[in-house]
């Protein structure tokens, strides 16, 4: 038998620790997906769909070797949301994504997390470009994309979500 | 957290599913052949199922394997033990792609997966949830020694539960 342990990289920013998602996040994610705050990321979802969503976000690491991290408050250990990479079967290219739980909003944590994720993409994964897919009605995430220096770059036609604006991040040279 | 171990049978290798297996899995799960196991209607939802099956290993330490013929890269199906949140019990499940049918592959892989689960994880009992219309899978369940368990909870009104012989009965 040769089962492999999959150790995902642990990142830290000033206020956040990035670690593997687990089913410990199930209740917080169920609360998030029960509300309209989840519309931007495909919600609302039933608890059963949340279970599957967490499973596939974790499986993403196995399939691609990168994925979404759980974001934890460094001081309290509280689950704040997730940030990282998404590359489902029909995506135009891998994206940088972020989702905060309600209690974590308004503190600049998504910005802090997205910066660290983008740096990881360029410095560790060797990406030369990155996008974020942000639904047109998700004004908060679009504002964050702009703060991150992203510019609009066309539209992705998603089978379920419909037309989703593509935001292109500045590349590694532009940020150097 | 662990990924799937590799196990071998006479003709097959059961290994961790990888990104390159996605196309074959998607073709199956979006086809009419998947009508008994929960057909998916978009590449996105197919990808979610595929990745969730890989995530099952990480979360629970067991899950579905990608099945290949020895020496081949491409998969012929996905077979293993899993228990999604809505399943009352742990299930031994087999998915075999269209062109690999009729060769006893599902039987060989399911035997290995069941044996592994009993031996390595100490599981005492396993079921297979099978649609009442899925005659081929019912035949396979019977060939594996499973019997219809009318007292067990099915997944849906048209579903049957086949209970496998436990580790003692097989030893």
Rg of chain A computed from alpha carbons, rounded to a whole number of angstroms: 16 Å
- Largest interface, chains and sizes: A-B, 31 and 35 residues
Shape of chain B: globular
Classify the beta-strand content of chain B into a percent band: 15-25%
The largest beta-sheet of chain A arranges its strands as 1-2-3-4-5
Q: What can be said about the biggest beta sheet of chain B?
A: 5 strands, antiparallel
* Amino-to-carboxy terminus distance of chain B: 30 Å
Give the SSE order of chain B as H and E letters: EEHHEEEHEHEEH
Task: Estimate what percentage of residues of chain A fall within beta strands.
Answer: 25-35%
Structural class per helix/strand content of chain A? Answer: alpha+beta
Query: How many helix segments of chain A?
Result: 5
What strand order characterises the main sheet of chain B?
1-2-3-4-5
- What's the helix count of chain B? 5
Helix and strand string of chain A, N-terminal first? EEHHEEEHEHEEH
The total beta strand count of chain B reads: 8
Unreliable spans of chain A: none
Shape of chain A: globular
Q: What is the first-to-last residue Cα distance of chain A?
A: 45 Å
Rg of chain B: 15 Å
Average per-residue pLDDT of chain B, rounded, comes to 93
Describe this structure in words.
With 176 residues, chain A is an alpha+beta fold. Chain A has five helices and eight strands; from the N terminus they run ββααβββαβαββα. Helix content of chain A is 31%, strand content 25%. In chain A, α1 packs across α2 (47-64). Chain B has 171 residues and is of the alpha+beta class. Chain B has a five-stranded antiparallel sheet, sandwiched between helices. Chain B has a three-stranded antiparallel sheet with strand order 6-8-7, covered by helices on one side. The model of chain B has no long low-confidence stretch (mean pLDDT 93). The A-B interface holds A 1-6, 20, 22-23, 47-48, 51-64, 88-90, 158-160 and B 1-7, 16-19, 22, 26, 42-59, 84-86, 120.
């Amino acid at each position: 038998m040769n089962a492999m342990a999959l150790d995902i990289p642990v990142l830290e920013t000033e206020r956040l620790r990035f670690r593997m998602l687990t089913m410990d996040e199930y209740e917080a994610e169920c609360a998030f997906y029960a509300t309209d705050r989840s519309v931007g990321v495909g919600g609302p979802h039933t608890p059963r769909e949340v279970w599957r969503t967490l499973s596939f976000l974790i499986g993403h690491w196995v399939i691609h070797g990168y994925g979404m991290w759980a974001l934890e408050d460094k001081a309290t250990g509280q689950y704040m949301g997730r940030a990282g990479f998404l590359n489902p079967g029909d995506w135009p290219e891998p994206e940088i994504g972020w989702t905060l739980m309600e209690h974590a909003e308004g503190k600049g944590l998504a910005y802090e997390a997205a910066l660290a994720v983008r740096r990881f993409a360029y410095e560790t994964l060797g990406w030369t470009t990155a996008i974020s897919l942000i639904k047109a009605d998700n004004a908060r995430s679009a504002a964050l994309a702009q703060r991150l220096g992203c510019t609009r770059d066309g539209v992705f036609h998603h089978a379920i979500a419909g037309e989703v604006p593509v935001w292109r991040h500045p590349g590694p040279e532009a940020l150097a | 957290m662990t990924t799937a171990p590799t196990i071998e049978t006479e003709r097959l290798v059961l290994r961790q599913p990888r990104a390159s297996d996605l196309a074959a899995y998607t073709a199956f799960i979006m086809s009419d052949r998947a009508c008994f196991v929960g057909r998916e209607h978009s590449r996105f939802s197919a990808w979610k199922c595929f990745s969730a099956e890989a995530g099952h290993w990480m979360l629970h330490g067991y899950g579905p394997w990608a099945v290949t013929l020895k020496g081949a890269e491409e998969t012929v199906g996905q077979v293993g033990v899993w228990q999604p949140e809505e399943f009352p019990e742990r299930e031994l499940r087999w998915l075999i792609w269209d062109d690999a049918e009729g060769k006893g592959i599902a039987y060989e892989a399911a035997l290995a997966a069941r044996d592994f689960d009993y031996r390595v994880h100490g599981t005492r009992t396993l079921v297979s949830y099978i649609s009442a219309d899925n005659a081929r899978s019912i035949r396979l369940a019977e060939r594996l020694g499973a019997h219809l368990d009318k007292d067990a909870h099915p997944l849906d009104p048209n579903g049957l539960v086949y209970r496998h012989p436990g580790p003692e009965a097989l030893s």
